[in-house]
Design brief:
This protein starts with 12 loop residues before the first helix and ends with a helix. Strand 2 and strand 3 form a beta hairpin. The protein is globular and about 90 Å long. It has 27 helices and 21 strands.
Length: 733
């Protein structure tokens, strides 16, 4: 270890020793002094303030600040020796049992009632009681307690504000705090990269003071100032990247695709069996204007389930076909791609029958390209695309393969963009000689700050109105563990809907035995929860039990494509009463006669996913019903999440709730790149004003210095916070 000055690049092994440095690297991906200094506390505890133990979820890795209430020693049943049970509380009525195995009389003497400490471990449940098995802990000093005061780890907690770090079982928060103290003793902060004018106008503290106060705050006021400065750095880096890329994209050349009078689009509008909503018309005007410019359109179209995004996209595709180009729509599943194909053929009629008897003048062809096409059908479809006869091409990621060539790709429409990786989207875009126009669609409502931060290089259009004739959806939580009779009633309710001539979905989080696929969550770990319910296991139980006698079909992503399509067709035409499925039905599946959905293990799904799923019912004239079945305990965060979903159909409110419960960094594509998130403090939900101000400053700075040539330190800081891989994610997203 060294006492020489350290910088952000100094290896940790020189500062904290080889063994500790290895643990920090292996468990937390922290390698240098800079990595550690930018590993900010997750929260700050104060002695006397409770941690709210009641809100902890089973399986969660936690650090809690709590007070020892009582201890008890009892013999173990299965083997020799004693068991020490220490009950700790947080002052709010919540308690945890810390269990220590083996004869550890010294722990009983140390863990005296009244002592405060930090306890770290995984929450488990035994006979209805929350517990930590063999937790790591550190006790906090009390007045003149010489023994505790002598412990250098406890010195970290002498102040009023106790930092609690994102930690690992092998590297608890107090070890990280000790390492931070060692580094801060020799740390030389970098030159401040933020322009002085911005610092002054926004009243921001210097980077050196911010980095010290974030770890060892001298007061709540100084901590607030430190956090505000470091949040600003994150927001500013992202906004500079987006504004820069938006400016570059605006200068790219693209082929203009202006509207054509008397063409396919006009003929389509004339044959539409219903009126467009005012929102659809307004968004259509925006998109038409974008397509007519010699620079590529980059537009995000968001709208609630059933708001009519597909018709808006089809009108844009027809404008491009009228202008001599081709349009491709990339769908996340074969089921959805096939449904888009059927729906567009139906809407277009003779306008999609070029080369056939009875085709309209100027008609085009609509081709479906999926991985399950037979060899002869595939050759024919690819020839239609390559020679330009197919103006509209629909497909899954099969469109991305080599051998799928376009004559003149003018527009790429990406449906449910969050289901695709960056590389997949970019592969399709690269099939054009010049950058094509891009329309990204999502039915997952996006809070304003997320749109500003993740899609800041896209223009955004929103469809907020639902077409006439859509019915309301009622949602209810079914607490299966507490009230089994409610689950029995749910199955009876489903049978009532079928008896009335309607159909139903039953959704499970897992397919069944075999490898886990993209559409199901991973198996549970050793937290004590059973595996998620599976389609292949639930369907036969329902057929033999509560849904006996009903016509039941099964749909999931591991079925062969032709079988999936056959099942979906059977359900669509009414040959099946109930479809037991995974989230393969989450997007786009349209069966107006389906009125009820029962989601099993609903707590295993995200908020936005549940909102998407229930959008599959109530698509006709009869009202929809969604029943969220769960074993999550009342008062748990999982149950509160489901209660929130049941309480509103406002997708934007639910999107904000979803954002609250996700790691902020995931929004920036950390999960896509597999890298550690660099959004550590910025909250896209709570820091709206700061993000807006950072965007304004970024626009002003890029206008006068597009490549940040006059601000090299700032450019380096941006590159560190938004690395090239993540910058590409932002650009391509």
């Amino acid at each position: 270890m060294t006492s020489e000055p350290s910088t952000v690049d100094t290896p940790l092994k020189k500062l904290v020793g080889e063994r500790t440095a290895k643990a920090l690297a292996g468990h937390l991906d922290l390698h240098t002094a800079g990595d550690l200094i930018y590993h900010f506390p997750r929260r700050y505890d104060e002695r006397g303030e409770h941690t709210d133990i009641r809100s902890l979820d089973v399986g969660e890795q936690v650090t809690v600040l709590a007070q020892v209430q009582r201890t008890a020693v009892r013999p173990m049943r299965q083997r020799r020796g004693n068991l020490l049970e220490v009950t700790v509380g947080d002052g709010s009525g919540g308690v945890l049992t810390c269990t220590f195995f083996g004869n550890q009389a010294w722990r009983e003497r140390e863990l005296r009632p009244g002592r405060w400490g930090l306890f770290a471990g995984k929450v488990t449940e035994f006979r209805g009681k929350r517990q930590l098995n063999g937790p790591e802990y550190v006790l906090l000093g009390e007045g003149g307690d010489g023994e505790a005061a002598a412990n250098e780890e406890v010195e970290e907690f002498a102040g009023a504000l106790i930092p609690v770090y994102p930690a690992a079982a092998a590297v608890p928060t107090w070890v990280i705090a000790r390492c931070v103290r060692v580094v801060l003793d020799t740390f030389t902060p970098p030159d401040d990269p933020l322009p002085a004018a911005v610092r002054a106008s926004r009243n921001l503290v210097g980077i050196g003071a911010a980095l010290r106060e974030i770890h060892r705050p001298s007061s709540k006021e100084e901590l607030y100032r430190a956090r505000r400065r470091l949040k600003w750095d994150e927001a500013f880096a992202v906004q500079l990247t987006l504004v820069q890329r938006k400016a570059r994209a605006a200068s790219w050349p693209a082929k203009a695709r202006p509207p054509k009078r008397g063409g396919l689009l006009d003929a389509f509008d004339a044959r539409l069996p219903y009126e467009l909503t005012p929102g659809q018309r307004d968004v259509g005007v925006e998109i038409a204007a974008d397509l007519a410019t010699p620079h590529p359109m980059h537009r995000l179209l968001q709208g609630e389930v059933g708001s009519g995004k597909t018709v808006v996209a089809l009108r844009a595709m027809l404008q491009v076909v009228d202008a001599g180009g081709q349009a491709a729509l990339l769908a996340p599943t074969e089921v959805l791609a096939a449904q888009h194909h059927r729906g567009m053929l139906e809407l277009l009629g003779p306008l999609a029958q070029a080369g056939e008897l009875g085709a309209a003048d100027d008609a085009t062809r609509v081709e479906l390209v999926t991985g399950s096409l037979g060899a002869a059908a595939r050759r024919r479809a690819l020839a239609e695309v390559a020679e330009g006869r197919a103006g509209i091409v629909l497909g899954t990621h099969a469109l991305l393969y080599e051998g799928v060539d376009f004559a003149d790709l003018g527009l790429v429409v990406v449906d449910e963009q969050h289901r695709f990786g960056v590389e997949q989207r970019d592969a399709l875009r690269s099939k054009a000689e010049q950058p094509p126009h891009v329309l990204v669609m999502t039915a997952t409502p996006i809070p304003r700050t997320v749109a500003m931060t993740v899609y800041g290089d896209l223009e955004t259009s929103t469809l907020s109105q639902l077409p006439q004739g859509r019915s309301p959806i009622a949602s209810h939580v079914v607490p299966a563990a507490e009230k089994p009779a409610f689950l029995d009633r749910a199955w009876r309710r489903l049978r009532e809907e079928v008896a009335a001539g309607h159909q139903a979905y039953v959704v499970c989080p897992r397919i069944g035995e075999g490898p886990v696929s993209d559409e199901e969550p991973p198996r549970e770990d050793d937290s004590g929860r059973r595996p998620p319910l599976a389609v292949t296991e639930v369907a036969p139980l329902l057929a033999e039990g509560p849904l006996h006698g009903l016509r039941i079909g099964v749909l999931h992503g591991r079925l062969p494509a032709d079988e999936k399509d056959a099942v979906m067709r059977s359900f669509a035409v009414g040959d099946l009463d109930v479809l037991v499925a995974t989230t393969v039905v989450e997007v786009g599946v349209n069966v107006p006669n389906a009125t009820v959905m029962i989601v099993l293990d609903a707590d295993r799904f995200g908020v936005s996913q549940l909102h998407q799923l229930r959008g599959r019912v109530g698509r006709g004239s009869a009202p929809g019903l969604c029943l969220l079945v769960t074993e999550a305990a009342e008062g748990s965060s999982a149950r509160e999440r489901l209660d929130a979903v049941a309480s509103t159909t406002d997708g934007f409110k639910l999107a904000e709730l979803d954002l609250e419960q996700r790691r902020e960094g995931d929004v920036l594509g950390a999960t896509q790149s597999g890298r550690r998130s660099h959004l550590r403090l910025l909250s896209l939900l709570r820091d709206t004003d700061l993000i807006r101000d950072a965007r304004a400053e970024a626009q002003a700075l890029i206008a006068e210095d597009p490549e940040l040539e006059r601000h090299p330190a700032l450019a380096a800081s941006v590159a560190a916070l938004v690395d090239e891989e993540r910058a590409e994610y932002l650009e391509k997203g």
